[in-house]
TrEMBL record, chains A, B:
Its EC number is 2.7.1.100. This is S-methyl-5-thioribose kinase. The keyword Transferase applies. It comes from Streptomyces olivochromogenes. Homodimer.
Length: 386, 386
């Protein structure tokens, strides 16, 4: 059976064919809102059951067929979910099935949860659990798929299976080079003209970003989520308990662990800049520390279970120090590209006057990139934030 | 057509089937002398033509079927030759064909050349060209298959195609862990007992080797030869001109460039220890410098042709510094494993008294590993040698 693009009216039949739904007629609505894919929510009329269906199209959804993109990104997503399900099933949506012919995932209905970015933009806070869970998520996924958690031969197979040329290229371009070059993708608020020019003509910054770019291209440390921003996280409460779900791992590949932490940190630091601009009291400035502490504690908790005991405790200390430094660099690059690159953050663009907060964030981003080796603790970063 | 193990009497027919030989009956003799594979030399009776046929068996040749080993290592070898042929065809044997059904390479007859290690062990020297060519070889292969010389998407395909779980595991074990552990593979001259014990109980050395091991496992910088010792190099003269051929790249995979340089350096440093022990005058101590200078010069010569111009000149300087440091570390690990690990070097074992030279080499190896970051030039290493 070849690939077919699923429309709203096909979904109920499709789910029946694959054994995910009974004879009753569900309500189906398309709720696609990412850039890339289609998503359908399927709900029993009595509201007792729900499912989501996510299908990758052979193009970028918001652009249409004029921007082709291999739907094989859904394979990467399914593979990432499969790996996470082994070690952190509580932190991703339940996956009921993956149909590789149609690049379609059938998964948990998360319509009762909210996207973390939306909550933050609406004046909400992170709450005590979110960043801890994210730190644990990165530790659990990366440890399990590193040379510490996975036997050497299995790791090599994972590296081969998870190469993702098209999606890595997007990151290599829009995050790790374009913002520092003249490029048609770039745009920015006129109030940032001077900084955009300065960033493009700063040789030290360019060389440091080249380092991060090379690390991204060659550092096959562990399977990453690959796009771990606050828009890839849903949070909420079920039966009185907090729920955190990381989703959309279609940029997943085997790369440097610091890239996942760094993306998350960048997004928390930008949300802190927004809260500060609005005079909102909150916990925005604490999230880098909370997620790093949770990452490190979880990685250390898993360390005694490593399959490769040649790696000793002193090596772990050094390794974690290096992940810290690399994460800061990637955080800086992510902040910069979200302000003077291709895709901007609503956290800043929806501010009454985005300029002051954007300037501060840009300068923070630059410091994180060029001074990452001097910043040795979350407190050092918090001092930069103030 | 399935896989068949070729015997001497099959070779002429096999070559005819594949269009490599005419109707005349050649002389065929088996000349296998590596650990892993069978090699046949095929010569026309009038001596005007010759070929070599190399076949990977589904086991380690010298051990027999009791040590199974996937013959797919020949795919890695063919792939490496194919890459090198594009950029340094003068430094490998001419490849006339690869038969992936039978894991057999038909290649240049090099029986007029000699293995570099043999020459050195018989009191010969490197001569002015060998190490320069080796440095250029590493630069040409690694540049072309790095993110500098190869477009991002093509690189990802190369990484996926070149994973080599079985052969990488051998290196990870016998080079980058066993010598520092109690392991049945290890053996050494009784005169080295104290050093073998000291190396196994040296926490700093262990942690530094763990760093190198992790770099070997995760540093997907470029396609490597993977086993670039003086036994993988043939040299000689044809029509008055020096000839250097690197062969046996079956350990090839995408890894850290310093691993190829380091292996070669270790072998040159051990040959220098041998020459010194025998009071042989020669050029043995110059080879690290000659190969490094040639590597660096060639890499810099290729730099302006890079496909990814985001990498700037300042990044190149840093990158080469890092390759230098990593190469020293791998050189140290290779020296150590060749003296107290599984497979020893005839350079030392055939000395009348191998102990003094072996002790000096072991201590040099340790210094290269633990002090690699302090050694900034070939002169620093030459000072350690004296």
């Amino acid at each position: 059976m070849g690939y077919r693009i699923l429309e709203t009216e096909d979904i109920a039949g499709y789910l029946r064919e694959r054994g995910h739904w009974g004879t009753d007629e569900p309500e189906v609505r398309e709720v696609s809102d990412g850039n890339m894919n289609r998503v359908f929510l399927v709900t029993a009329t009595d509201r007792t059951r729900g499912l989501a269906v996510k299908q990758a199209l052979p193009w970028v959804r918001v652009a249409g067929p004029s921007w082709p993109m291999s739907p094989e990104r859904a394979d990467a997503e399914a593979r990432a979910y499969e790996q996470v399900a082994k070690v952190a099933p509580d932190k991703i949506p339940a996956i009921h099935g993956y149909d590789s012919d149609n690049y379609a995932l059938v998964m948990e209905d998360m319509s009762d949860l909210e996207v973390l970015r939306t909550i933050l933009n609406e004046g909400g806070t992170y709450g005590p659990d979110t960043s801890r869970r994210i730190g644990e998520f990165v530790a659990q996924l990366s440890f399990a798929t590193s040379d510490f958690g996975m036997p050497s031969a299995e790791r090599k197979a994972l590296i081969a299976a998870s190469v993702s040329p098209e999606l890595c290229k997007i990151t290599e371009d829009v995050v790790l080079s374009e913002p520092y070059l003249e490029h048609e993708h770039n745009h920015w608020h006129p109030g940032l003209d001077d900084l955009a020019v300065a960033f493009r003509s700063d040789p030290r910054l360019r060389t440091e970003v080249a380092e991060l770019r090379h690390l991204f291209m060659t550092g096959a440390q562990a399977l990453l989520h690959g796009d771990l921003h606050t828009g890839s996280i849903m949070v909420g409460t079920r039966e009185g308990a907090p729920v955190v779900r990381v989703f959309d791992p279609e940029f997943s590949f085997v790369g440097p662990i610091g890239f996942d932490l760094g993306l998350y940190w960048a997004n928390t630091l930008v949300s802190a800049a927004r809260a500060d601009a609005l005079g909102v009291e909150g916990d925005h400035g604490d999230q880098l520390r909370l997620s790093w502490d949770a990452f490190r504690a979880e990685f250390r908790r898993l360390w005694p279970t490593r399959v490769d005991t040649f790696f000793d405790d002193a090596f772990l200390d050094r390794f974690l120090d290096r992940v810290w430094t690399e994460s800061l660099g990637f955080a800086g690059a992510e902040i910069v590209r979200r302000i003077i690159g291709f895709a901007h953050l609503t956290d800043l663009t929806t501010l009454p006057d985005p300029v002051p907060a954007s300037r501060r964030a840009l300068l923070l981003g630059r410091e994180l990139i060029v001074r990452r080796a001097e910043l040795t603790s979350p407190e050092d970063v918090e001092a930069l934030l103030r």
